Amino acid sequence: MTERLMRVANFVDPPKRLLDPAFLTRVCAHHAGRVLARRFAWCPTVRDKQEPT
């Protein structure tokens, strides 16, 4: 991903290349994973409710 962004930033590739469906899918999946991880990070688990033995 970084390589593709750098190629567009340095005018090696046209900006339309960033609209490639495969590239957009990877970007969306990355951001969706971060949002889901943040959303469920605060959820208590069963381990949190158990008292130490």
What can be said about the biggest beta sheet?
none
Beta strand %: under 5%
| Tally of strands | 0
Q: Nearest-angstrom radius of gyration?
A: 19 Å
The average pLDDT is: 76
Shape: elongated
Residue share in helix? 55-70%
The arrangement of helices and strands along the chain is HHH
Give me the secondary-structure category: mainly alpha
Tell me the number of helical segments per DSSP (H or I, 4 or more residues long): 3
Low-confidence spans: none
Quote the distance from N terminus to C terminus: 47 Å
What does this protein structure show overall?
It is a single chain. By secondary structure, the protein is mainly α. It is 60% helix and 0% strand. It is built from three helices and no strands. The relative contact order is 0.10. The model has no long low-confidence stretch (mean pLDDT 76).
Key structural traits:
single chain; 53 residues; 60% helix; mainly alpha; elongated
Could you give a short description of this structure?
The chain has 53 residues and is mainly α.
Topology (SSEs and partners):
Layout: H1 2-9, H2 21-40, H3 46-49
